[in-house]
Amino acid sequence: MSLRDHLRELRNRFFKAGIAILLGTIVGFIVYQPAFTILTEPITRLSTEEAPVEVIFSSVAQPFDIMLQVALFIGLILSSPIWLYQVWAFIVPGLRKNERRYAMGFIAAAVPLFVGGIALGWFALPQAMAFFTSLTPDGTAHRVLATVYVPFVTRLLLAFGIALVIPVILVGLNMAGILEGKTMLKHWRISVFLIAVIAAMGAPGSDVMTMFYLGAPLALLFALALAIALLGDRRRAKKAAKEHTAGDAEIQRGAQPLSEMTHDD
Q1: Which residue stretches belong to region Disordered (predicted)?
Q2: Which residues have a Cβ under 8 Å from the Cβ of 156 and sit 6 or more positions away?
Q3: CA pair distance 232, 177, nearest whole angstrom
Q4: Residue among 185, 178, 35 at smallest CA distance from 99
Q5: Among 2, 120, 151, 188, which is least packed, fewest CB within 10 Å?
Q6: Per-residue pLDDT, 246
């Protein structure tokens, strides 16, 4: 594909993903009130008489801004099957009929992992909130701006969700013949380092164990992705060798009558 075709493909994928996210965001506006209560529950439940904790707004327009952010967050979750497929379709365009099953397999694995990553982030969130609020001095109140808290929580949860999708993308690229398993194995040290960095950034908390909420599943998924990629490489190598052998046999059969005719002459 030319650069212009790539840009046109990117525009079409963005448009389709944008429509799906917009529809999901509309649903997010409808369920905003209970969603906001759920998102703020990990920090508001830490409130005590000695150290009250509450989420506040500091301007008149801020509630609408937060409503928009929460609705968009919900829209990203609800529309994840659509925009994840668009990401895959852009990375591997022009799929042949026998390769479309890879796209369906990618969606079947990526969507549950994305949602599961968000659930995992939600499990780790109270630990981070408990740590940060524990630093509040005695006799003071902990009032958190909604414009600070809500973006922090949504980005944390999205980081967990997207991180768990990365190994599936690696497997998809391997199945499409773009990324070899031996290349992944060769750079495993860099991969482990990146996993540690992503886990440290995405899972703040009071101790190292908080980082493992993201790091351990991500490392296991990367190991699984590496194993699947190596098996895929071996299977394709055997298939290519078999096709090569069959091709040589066909050439020999085609050359045999000519050799016999030359011998008779």
Answers
A1: 241-265
A2: 121, 125, 128, 202, 203, 204
A3: 9
A4: 178
A5: 2
A6: 65
* pLDDT for the residue 160: 85
Q: Backbone phi, then psi, for 38, in 5-degree steps? A: -65, -40
Give which of 154, 72, 173, 165 is closest to 114, Cα–Cα: 165
Question: What is the rounded CA–CA span in Å between residue 165 and residue 180?
Answer: 18
Beta bridge partners of 144: 55
Report helix, strand or coil for 120: helix
Residue ranges of the chain with per-residue pLDDT less than 50: none
Residue 87 in tokens: 């990401």
Q: How far apart are CA 54 and CA 45, in angstroms?
A: 9
What region does 140 belong to: left with phi over 0, alpha with psi -120 to 50, or beta? Answer: beta
If we measure between CA atoms, which residue out of 39, 93, 100, 96 comes closest to residue 70? Answer: 39
Question: Could you tell me the two tokens for 83?
Answer: 């925009």
| Residue 46 near residue 104, CB atoms below 8 Å | no
Task: Look at residue 66 in the predicted model and tell me its pLDDT.
Answer: 93
The span from the CA of 134 to the CA of 53, in Å, is 11
Place of tokens 């005719």: 261
Q: What is the per-residue pLDDT for 240?
A: 74
Rounded to whole angstroms, the Cα distance separating 259 from 63 reads 87
Phi, psi of 135 (to 5 degrees): -85, -5
Q: Which two tokens stand for residue 41?
A: 């529950």
| 3-state secondary structure (DSSP) of residue 26 | helix
Decide if 212 contacts 198 (C-beta within 8 A).
no
pLDDT value for 70:
95
Site of tokens 């917009």: 22
* Per-residue confidence (pLDDT) for residue 262, from 0 to 100: 52
Residues in a beta bridge with 56: 145
